[in-house]
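Lecture 7 notes: from sequence to structure.
We start with the chain below.
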Amino acid sequence: MSSMILDAPLQSICKCHFCTECDGTGCIGEMPGMGGFSQNVNFIRNCADWTVVEEQIKNLGNKEYGKLLSASIPEVRLAPITGGIENVGYSTEKGFYKDIIAAVWEAGCKLSIGDGCPDIKLLSGIEAVKSLGSTDVSRVGAGASSGNSGATSAGASSGNSCATSADVTGAAGICSGITACANSGATTPSPKAAVFIKPYPQARIFERVEWSAPVAEYIGVDIDSYSILTMRNLVKLEKKTASQLKEIKKAAAKKGIPFAVKGVFTREDVELMQEVRPDVIVISNHGGRVENRAGSSAVFMAENASTLRKYCEQLWVDGGLRKYRDLQTAAYFGISQVMIGRPFISALCRGGSAEVRLAYEKLITPQL
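Predicted structure tokens for the same chain:
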């Protein structure tokens, strides 16, 4: 196993400040970069409010708090991240995705890839997942996500100039290579990822479903990306209706792939999920990077998890999870998977795959 990072920026030019704790206070207002909207208000709340919610459960009495303390933690998955150039400091999107995907996979974490413009952002993620099946990357404690108990969101792309799929050199080659790999007859199952697509017009989403299907464990739509104003205006993002989301769910089901909706963070979103009934609902405010209401994923989860679980097979959450107790708090509310973004990016830039492994192991190790 190698801890070498192939295209990583030097720490001195990486846009992460390498804070002792990634709590939103070190990169205020840095977008592009690792920060969030409105002086990081939701980024900071995301991190702080897991402790707030834990204390609320503790105040319910020893019986309820005991349930939290004995909870098996959810599985851990890399959050969908793009913008390796403008948000992290890499020289290429392809290099960023190759490094982060390989590092978290090697650590034993589940995978996600994100979408963006230009299309090379999604295509680079697809290629990175595909490449795991054709290299000698091995996993430390494969299946260890849930290892102690049976064991995301950073990275909204900023408004750089965009291109359609027809403008991206090599797109067809990347996708055909993935298909060839998927159809090669290999006996070892190929690595898969949850693929989260921006809420483009339907035709572009269906195109992306085709691109993603060979590497997709789940296919989802990142509905809160509609609130990325620069991207919305450049590429005509849509506020998806229930009927549109059902069409995408049907397209994914035809390929035998579960459908997810990410970015559920308002009362309106809850009502939308009641109608759509996706396989997976992801509570998220995009790591505090989209311009929506003030609040945290943790508090929204505490207020709405019991309702949302009625509308899906699995309920996931991302935003500000930093320690084992946060994962137990999520599990108390019936969360089956959590997604982690910035801490893994910071670890990668600080020390490569070895540092990512340490960050992952710290997260899933019970506190003394």
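Points to note: Confidence is low (pLDDT under 50) at residues 142-187. Residues 342-364 form the longest helix (23 residues).
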